[in-house]
Amino acid sequence: MKITIILLLYIASQAYCQQNDEILGYMYVFAQEWPGSICKFQKCTKTYMGNYDNARWNTHGLWPNTMLETTCGMIFNCRDEDYDEDKLTVATKTLIDVTWNGMYSDTFTFRKHEWEKHGTCHPDNLTQNGYMSRVGNLNNQYNYYKILASAGIYPDDDRQLTDAEVRAAFTKVLGISTAMTYTCQKDSATGKFYIAELRTCFTQAMKPRTCDCSKPVGAFVTCGKVFYYPTFLLTLDEQIELEEISDLSNGFLE
């Protein structure tokens, strides 16, 4: 009887340790948004686009998640440390002014939200400059615009895309087809889907891994059988409308 009890306790303790090992692992979700789609539904402005170079997707964020065997759980607001751009180097500011802007809402507020909610949870306990620099460099390393372009996929208002086409482009770079996921915005008037946010997923060692966190956020929806990757160019009217536009951070922050 004693042997049976001891054996059961041993099995239970091993299961507990295994569960803890799984929970203490991390995965990262790196999210970028395509301005051509986002700005169809939001009033984007030149000021809020910063030094965006029209040759990339805009960063949404890098989100640490606790990694379990079959799912993942987002963690947030881990440290009480207010965002302060004075802590960023000139090089980091220059980098994120190209790769990470508010598009349709105040850029400082957007970055502040991402740092305080997600950056404070980075398991490497990065400084603000370290986190913002890492995210900006990831945008350069995994430039979604270039990844798609390498497969002959460019912004086009008329071309219909399929999951197979987009996924094949990223599989060449990431090595596995399940290391990316994406969502769309739907035009209620036309019924058309526009690819809006695309996410790539990584292990704690920054190796591509299957994305378990695939639920759309905010106003995003699952794409249809075919969808569009529209062109993007701020018109003069959009560039000078800034003072007439209120802060529109409704439902897109994650």
Automatic annotation (TrEMBL):
UniProt cross-references to InterPro entries, sorted A to Z: RNase_T2-like (IPR001568), RNase_T2_His_AS_2 (IPR033130)
Keywords, sorted A to Z: Signal
Taxonomic source organism: Paramecium octaurelia
GO MF annotations, alphabetized: ribonuclease T2 activity; RNA binding
Secretion signal, residue range per the UniProt entry: 1-17
GO biological process, alphabetically ordered: RNA catabolic process
Record flagged with keyword Ribonucleoprotein: no
Superkingdom of this protein's organism: Eukaryota
Recorded GO CC terms: extracellular region
PROSITE patterns hit by this protein: RNASE_T2_2 (PS00531)
One Pfam family recorded for the sequence: Ribonuclease_T2
Designated name of the protein: Uncharacterized protein
